[in-house]
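Re: weekly structure request thread

Next one in the queue (246 aa):
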Amino acid sequence: MSAREDVPPAARGNGGGARDGLTALGEAPATLVPRFEHGSRVPGWDRAVDLEKQPAEIPDPELVEVPAGLRSEIEARMREYPDRHSAVLPALAAAQRLHGWCSPLALDQVACVMRVTPAYLESVASFYDMLETSPAAAHRVYVCTNISCSLRGADRLYEVLREAAGEELNVRSFECLGACDIAPMASVDGVYIGPLAPEDVPQLLEDVRAGREVLPAKQLARRPVADPYADRATREHGEHGDGPGA
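Done, posted below.
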């Protein structure tokens, strides 16, 4: 973990006004907030547009084979909205679950059902962090590195996780996961877990690789709350809450 090396001297606080590292009152140098290498940008922001591509067209249903299950799920989602474009995110999520990522084939299949262009879908998929636009590992671990988690050691946690997981898991930093009360935390295949420490990493990875529930005692869904009935369904009947009190 290291701050960016390309920060100009003026930004490190050598005098000359607030923009040169002084506070608004000019009394003391401002503390430079480092940008870590993993950053907090949307994936793909640094990839240039391919200007050689031909204009996109809506795929011909006669030429694109769409799995029946995927087609059924997308059409069901489209019926939930007055404008079919509103179903783009759940449709892309369904395609990603099937293919592992939003591949060109996955985009063609979704575009064929929704009657939009693959380019339109790619513009959406490339914006959202949880939609993969390149091949990725099956298990996804998102480490929150926003302010609350960062102050409690999330950057170190992220580095340890990445080093230990290697290419086996899709470990990414995430701008904010909205669970500051369990900082530092991570989402492991959609399950919120925290507070986490570097010492938890070996057990976390062991649970994921073995297909077990990951660190059950640290899962947000299992934490007690003031309302005695709020999480009873989760505790008694699993995460789907399909029993009494759900």
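The first strand starts at residue 140 and ends at 144. The longest helix spans residues 88-99.
Next request, please.
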